UniProtKB/TrEMBL annotation:
Protein name: 4-carboxymuconolactone decarboxylase
Xref: InterPro entries: AhpD-like (IPR029032), CMD-like (IPR003779)
Gene3D superfamilies: AhpD-like
One Pfam entry name: CMD
GO-annotated molecular function: peroxiredoxin activity
Superkingdom assignment: Bacteria
Domain Carboxymuconolactone decarboxylase-like: 63-143
Length: 192
């Protein structure tokens, strides 16, 4: 049974940390997020006064861990080997039930060629009919995780992906499930 625990503001359960109030380690993390490769994304990641939104506000509460999480995400998004469209299809597959993740990555997905019809299929838990074989098997693997990827699914995945690509795909799905868990724990909404 769902029970509301803790105060819920328009930004979720955690207060948004103001840049002027951050300790040094928190400032370093904030700068890596807003001044790094994530800058200029097609979604709102901070308030007008510089407070971080989404999962990154929560990560400021544990800046050393937050820095490691941020670096994994930056590597996956901006230096990974998977095509951008495939990457976003996987992110939206694992993040379909996360309000903020869907808000942010549906916008990113549109910039890499994901259509409205494809977004609707993903939001409904399906695989868009327009996906090529690599995209379809990537979505299949993402849906199987964090459970077991059965032998037939693994064979299909290995027919489409190298071992290194399949490791990256698994880490990508796991990373965005991690973020979805943070967002769910702290009831982080999409910006209004």
């Amino acid at each position: 049974m769902w029970m509301e625990v803790g105060p819920l503001s328009e930004h979720g359960r955690l207060p948004l940390l103001a840049p002027a109030e951050l300790a040094e380690a928190q400032r370093v993390l904030q700068e890596r997020i807003v001044g790094g490769k994530r800058a200029g994304q097609p979604f709102q990641a901070s308030t007008a006064d510089g407070r971080l939104l989404g999962p990154f506000n929560a990560l400021l509460y544990t800046p050393e861990l937050g820095l490691a999480v941020q670096e994994v995400g930056e590597q996956l998004r901006f230096s990974g080997t998977l095509p951008a469209r495939l990457r976003e299809l996987v992110i939206l597959t694992v993040g379909a039930d996360s309000v903020y993740e869907w808000y942010a990555h549906s916008r990113v997905a549109r910039t890499v060629g994901v259509t409205e019809a494809e977004l609707e299929a993903l939001a409904a838990g399906g695989t868009p009919e327009t996906c090529d074989s690599r995209e379809a098997v990537a979505i299949e693997v993402a849906k199987a995780l964090p459970g077991e990827v059965d032998a037939a699914c693994y064979r299909r995945a290995r027919a489409e992906f190298s071992e290194a690509e399949l490791v990256e795909l698994s880490v990508l799905a796991g990373y965005y499930r991690l973020l979805a868990g943070i967002l769910a724990t702290f009831a982080v909404p999409a910006p209004r």
